[in-house]
Specification:
5 strands, alpha/beta, about 45% helix, Rossmann fold
């Protein structure tokens, strides 16, 4: 039986802000995957999470509906227990500003902006969960508005089918240079 709702996305897209709002509105528990991995002793000295072990340990862990969130979600959830997954997306230029505001290193900003530009997490999430995955653009919306969009998407009847392709907006060398990657 499926019990897990998920929220994923590149770092800086709003997972930590939006997930608690969604869980409160649904009346379900909410857990960050990185925190769970740490509690379960699945984080090595370099900070890497053993996603295969995390998936095995999460399998059948929850008896009732739960919301899990994190950028590792497409690689660490038991596929047959997932109801739906929201992939938070953000325009790469706005994401760059968010990450710089958090004082990410230049290398981490570049890595995460490039991942968002090519839709890495969205692609991996769709590959893992198929039609149970949907995308929500958080670029111009606050956490409450984005939480509303996620809640709508958790209903199969309202699930958005739009996929965001940022490469269309950054289709020339000069536009890519504007990202200064």
């Amino acid at each position: 039986m499926r019990h897990i709702l998920g929220i994923t996305g590149s770092p800086g897209t709003g997972k930590k802000s939006i997930a608690p709002l969604v869980s409160e509105r649904l009346g379900v528990a909410c857990h960050a995957l990185n925190d769970l991995a740490d509690e379960l002793g699945l984080v090595d000295e370099s900070g890497e999470v053993d996603t295969d072990s995390l998936c095995r340990k999460l399998s059948s862990r929850y008896e009732s509906k739960v919301l899990l969130f994190g950028h590792l979600l497409p690689y660490s959830l038991p596929k047959d227990e997932v109801i739906a997954v929201a992939v938070l997306r953000c325009d790469p230029r706005a994401l760059k500003l968010r990450l710089e505001g958090r004082r990410y290193s230049a290398a981490k900003v570049k890595e995460n902006v490039e991942a968002e530009l090519i839709g890495l997490v969205a692609h991996d999430t769709r590959r893992a969960f198929g039609e149970r995955a949907f995308e929500v653009d958080t670029t111009k919306f606050d956490a409450s508005q984005s939480a509303d969009a996620v809640l709508n998407g958790f209903s199969p009847l309202k699930r958005p089918s739009r996929r965001f392709d940022w490469t269309e907006a950054y289709d020339s060398p000069s536009k890519l240079r504007a990202l200064a990657l």
